Automatic annotation (TrEMBL):
Positions of the catalytic residues: D72, K74, D77
Keyword Lyase: yes
Gene3D superfamilies attached to this UniProt entry: Aldolase class I (3.20.20.70)
Name listed for the protein in its UniProt record: Orotidine 5'-phosphate decarboxylase
Gene name, Swiss-Prot/TrEMBL: pyrF
Signal sequence coordinates: none
UniProt binding sites for substrate: 24, 46, 72-81, 133, 194, 203, 223-224
Gene Ontology BP terms: 'de novo' pyrimidine nucleobase biosynthetic process; 'de novo' UMP biosynthetic process
Keywords in alphabetical order: Decarboxylase, Lyase, Pyrimidine biosynthesis
Species name: Teichococcus wenyumeiae
Length: 243
């Protein structure tokens, strides 16, 4: 989707797959530079733990001058604590925010209620992270989860959506199975996306932007293939052009 066609509310489903640029740096000036450069080519920009912990909550508003912000702090705590954190970030509501799906239904329900109570129609979309894209089946088994990533993603997705999550974060490998199971409605936000020939780094369950979009993703979260490029704007434009 073009940057000019962001729907309202900000997190409503895009009419075609778009890009979210992950601004992973501790340096807010660098993040602002990236946000300005990629803004014409992406729908949202992501503020994650590295930038938020270095720069503080004010960075969400600053970065938001360029594009709507996906605030990815992956809350995972008791329901009361997560509800409080959601209220705190809703002082200046981002467009989307993440919780860990493994935090359970009561935590997700509390987050959704807190978002509605404190931000009303301006509330962020609540996204439940399922199985991190850095997990292989073997890595997941080490944590005590048997059955493989796809089965665990479906289990956590069912729980999260019935508790009021608006969408899910999953890898490219689970997108089509989630669409088969839950239809078109949930927002599917998908990291672990790598243009052909680019380095996977620490990502285990990856696919190309074209494959991920064709499977049914709404948003592709892409960091290093854009930010580690000599020309982040051109890298974002190239990816957006393939969708
Ligand atoms: O919630 C996320 O955004 C997320 C979930 C997940 O399972 N995997 C994952 O990589 N991410 C984030 O997506 C971004 C991916 O960055 P790159 O691997 O550099 O493209 C990072 O900012 C991660 O924090």
């Amino acid at each position: 989707m073009s940057a000019a066609s962001i729907p309202s509310p900000l997190w409503a489903k895009p009419n075609r797959c778009g890009v979210i640029a992950a601004l992973d740096t501790p340096d807010p000036a660098r993040a602002m530079g990236w946000a300005a450069a990629v803004a014409p080519h992406v729908g949202l920009v992501k503020v994650g733990l590295e930038l938020f912990c270095a720069a503080g909550p004010a960075v969400v508003q600053q970065i938001g001058q360029h594009r709507p912000v996906f605030l990815d702090l992956k809350f995972h705590d008791i329901p009361n604590t997560v509800a409080g954190a959601v209220r705190s970030v809703c002082a200046h509501p981002p467009a989307m925010l993440t919780l860990h799906g493994g935090g359970g239904g009561a935590m997700i329900e509390a987050a959704r209620r807190a978002a509605e109570d404190s931000a009303g129609a301006q509330r962020p979309a609540i996204l439940a992270v399922t199985v991190l894209t850095s997990f292989s089946a073997a890595g997941l088994a080490e944590t005590g989860v048997s059955g493989g990533p796809a089965q665990q993603v479906l289990r956590l997705a069912r729980l999260a959506l019935s508790a009021g999550a608006d969408g899910l974060v999953c890898s490219p490998h689970e997108v089509s199975r989630l669409r088969d199971a839950f239809g078109d409605a949930p927002l599917l936000v998908v990291p672990g996306v790598r243009p052909a020939g680019s380095d996977a780094g620490d990502q285990a369950r990856v696919a190309t932007p074209e494959e991920t979009a064709a499977a049914g993703a709404d948003w592709l979260v892409i960091g290093r293939p854009i930010t580690a490029s000599a020309d982040p704007a051109a890298a974002a434009a190239r990816i957006a052009a393939t969708l």
